[in-house]
Amino acid sequence: MEVNVKDEQLADLHAMWRIRVLEETILQLRIDGDVVGSVHLENGQEAVAVGACRTLRSQDAVFSTYRGHGWALARGVPAEKILAELLYRQTGVNGGRGGSAHFSAPEYGFYGENSIVGAGAPIAAGAALAAKFDGTGRVALTVFGDGAMNQGGVSETLNLAAAMDLPVVFICENNKYSELTPINDMVRNPDLSARAHALGIPAVRIDGNDPAQVSTAVGLAITTAEHGRGPTFIEAATRRITGHYIGDAQTYRPAGELEADEKNEPIVRLKNALAAQGVAASTLESVEQRARAEIAAATERALAAPLTDPSTAREHLYV
Amino acid sequence: MSETAKLTYGGAINAALARCLEQMPETLLFGEDVALPGGVFGVTRGLRKAYGERVFDTPISETAMLGAAVGASMMGRRPIVEIMWADFMLVAFDQIVNQAANVRYVSEGRLSAPMTIRTQQGNAPGACAQHSQNLEALLLHVPGIRVAMPVQAQDAYDLTLAAVACDDPVVVIENRTLYAGAKAEVQIGGPIPAIGGHRLRRAGDDVTVVTWGAITSSVEAAVDATGISADVIEAVWLNPFDTDAVLASVRRTGRLLVVHEANLTGGFGAEVVARVVESGVSLSAPPRRVGALDSRIPAAVQLAKTILPQTDDIAAALRSLVAH
Ligand SMILES: Cc1ncc(C[n+]2csc(CCOP(=O)(O)OP(=O)(O)O)c2C)c(N)n1
Ligand SMILES: [Mg+2]
After folding, report:
1. Are residues B91 and A99, on separate chains, in Cβ contact within 8 Å?
2. Cβ–Cβ of B301/A148 closer than 8 Å?
3. What's the rounded mean pLDDT across residues A42-51?
4. What does each C-alpha distance from B278 to B175, B200, B275, B281 come to in angstroms?
5. CATH number of the CATH domain containing B68
6. What are phi and psi of A237, to 5 degrees?
7. What pLDDT is attached to residue A206?
8. Most buried residue, A35, A289, B102, B251, by most Cβ within 10 Å?
């Protein structure tokens, strides 16, 4: 099959713009008071979700963190349903029960965000365990941050998955910070992939701001899992170019860091690369505008939907 | 030397921690984001600068943090650990229940674990199910762990001091919706209070209301709105719990209402009711409890409102009690 690299890059650019605009829209809704509570954006980290999700198959299962709007979108959850969830509408993926930090949409292979750091990893291992018995060929993918590597449950899970050859892909989005604390102050060995490697798991460190590199790594991980060789660990270097949560003033960042990160963020980088290949500015512009139009329409529909009826609040606790 | 300062709730905790670090050289203060950033709620701001290496940031490793507190306290340090949300303490419950709680008892008193866990809990608008729980009953079920729940700035100051000075493990459960509230006059620098006791927030004759945590202000609002003559006993210490004060009040009023934000089943309100009923004190109405419905907590504000106790629910319970 002939792969047109330029088309693939344009598709990645579009997918990243969709996430960026979704997050910008959520920020505005939060500022306007339509969305309330704690919200974590993934601006700057879009390439990881985009590269991974375009490589996953429909039978695969994604487990993300609270920083998961973009992962859901990349997995195929319609923007309208994500926005409606954050706006507590009936049309939201969980009718507002999950909210920004804890929603799921299994019908799209998105098995949910998690607001307990590191907790998604063992659950993903369980989804992989099920695959050993259910004949689906499912690969489970869990994404978590650098800080989550210091959670005991993550280490336990890495070993469990290795010992049992579970078809699971661990992606560590190393964005250099765990909330307000630099990861390198909290570890002695800054190579986080070394921990997985020490447990016998194939582990790679990649540029997480390049969707193509992410896609290649995830593709190899799927092949490894399909051949019964168990888990893969991917440490994807990236940066968030917004605060940990909306309202984080980011005073912990050294001077100039944010500016440097903004120059290297994945949308800017891919745009520059495409322009250098001779793609017309108008083409690049239309990719962005297509994403903006889609999210704007989705926002309008989400806002117009009715709030979830409070009388349903007690439903779904048990069967 | 006692003086007063105008402090927020968060500021009062900060002042108490500063005093502990100043006057008790064996104290250590640690947790996620507490040192250089000064805490995600700013409660520990400035303490690293003032007290240096005894104040430090930790990895996101609640088991290691709490286990290290147990071990350091056994060796004579006095660790103060921040667990950012009570929900996260569940990741490391072993170190609280199997470890810290056992140290003194099973060593026949040869060892002790004078550690303080500061955490905060409860719902705030939009908070997800994993950041909304009220978990005090889990801790109160565990003999060997003291539990305090300050709501006012003065209590935040006093209870923090008492907790740190206590020679047993203490969990101080704060509430994030209170940290940056209005400033109040706080007496600082006085003698370090002992653990235990209650606060009488309203005095009355017709009903005894026992409550704790941030919902205390809803209780006060309900009492004021209904005009019912009520004793409002805020149990700032839940272990030790001031059972005598509750019994003395109910003996006078003959009616009992317990209000907590935690859900009803297995909540500490059931324990309070049981103690009152078992005492044989004569009641003119069956005791009542108001708490969250037995449910997970939805992020959606309009749904959470129907699960969590509101001022109107408390007022209705008060009215029905005095109608007896
Ligand atoms: C068990 C637990 N401890 C602490 C927290 C609070 N917390 C939420 S996000 C976070 C930082 C996580 O950092 P990282 O894993 O690097 O992910 P990032 O947010 O950078 O994507 C912390 C400490 C939590 N949610 N759960
Ligand atoms: Mg991080």
Report:
1. no
2. no
3. 98
4. 32, 23, 5, 8
5. 3.40.50.970
6. -75, 125
7. 98
8. A35
Which domain CATH number covers B312?
3.40.50.920
Is residue B177 located within the same domain as residue B285? Answer: no
Ramachandran class of A58: left when φ > 0, alpha when ψ lies in -120 to 50, beta otherwise:
alpha
Q: What's the rounded Cα separation, in Å, for the pair A8 and A216?
A: 13
pLDDT (tens digit, 9 = 90+) per residue, B257-277? Answer: 999 999 999 999 999 999 999
Both structure tokens of B22: 């100043």
The residues, any chain, with a CB within 8 Å of residue A142's CB and separated by 6 or more, are: A62, A63, A64, A120, A121, A123, A124, A125, A168, A169, A170, A171
Could you tell me if B63 and B118 lie in one domain? yes
Q: Atom 20, ligand 1: which residue's CA is nearest?
A: A178
Q: What domains lie within chain A, and their CATH numbers?
A: 5-305 (3.40.50.970)
- B193: in domain: no
Over the stretch A199-236, which tens digit does the pLDDT of each residue have?
A: 999 999 999 999 999 999 999 999 999 999 999 999 99
* Residue B26 confidence (pLDDT) above 70: yes
Q: Regarding beta strands A181-182 and A177-178, do their DSSP bridges make them parallel or antiparallel, or are they unpaired?
A: antiparallel
Q: How confident is the model at residue A5 (pLDDT cuts 50, 70, 90)?
A: confident
Q: Are residues B153 and B302 in the same domain?
A: no
Reported as a single tens digit per residue, the pLDDT across B223-252 is 999 999 999 999 999 999 999 999 999 999
Cis peptide before B240 (omega within 30 of 0): yes
Residue range(s) defining the domain that contains residue B137: 3-188
In a domain, B140, yes or no: yes
Contact B117, B89 (CB under 8 A): yes
**Residue that is last in its domain, among B188, B213, B234:** B188
Do B302 and B155 have their domain in common? no
CA B34 / ligand 2 centre spacing (Å): 17
By three-state DSSP, how is residue B179 classified? coil
pLDDT of residue B324: 86
Radius of gyration over every alpha carbon of chain B, rounded to an integer in angstroms: 19
Q: Are B147 and B268 part of one and the same domain?
A: no
Q: Are residues B208 and B94 in the same domain?
A: no
pLDDT tens digits, one per residue of A65-114? 999 999 999 999 999 999 999 999 999 999 999 999 999 999 999 999 99
Predicted local confidence at residue A3, as pLDDT: 64
Paired with A77 in beta bridges are none
d(C-alpha B137, C-alpha B179), whole Å: 23
How many structural domains is chain B composed of? 2
The DSSP bridge partners found for residue B79 are B28
Residue B95, in any domain of the structure: yes
Residues B242 and B288 in one domain: yes
- Band the pLDDT of A245: cuts 50, 70, 90: very high
Counting from 1 in the atom list of ligand 1, the atom nearest the Cα of A118 is 1
Q: What is the pTM of this model?
A: 0.97
B179 is a domain residue: yes
Q: Which ligand is nearest to the CA of B84?
A: 1
Domain's final residue, options B140, B160, B188: B188
Element (H, E) at B30: strand B27-31
Question: Amino acid letter at A146?
Answer: D
What is the Rg, in whole angstroms, of the alpha carbon atoms belonging to chain A? Answer: 19
Pocket of ligand 1 (CB under 6 A): A 65, 67, 115-117, 144-148, 173, 175, 177-179, 244; B 32, 60, 62, 84, 88, 91
Arithmetic mean of pLDDT, A52-61: 98
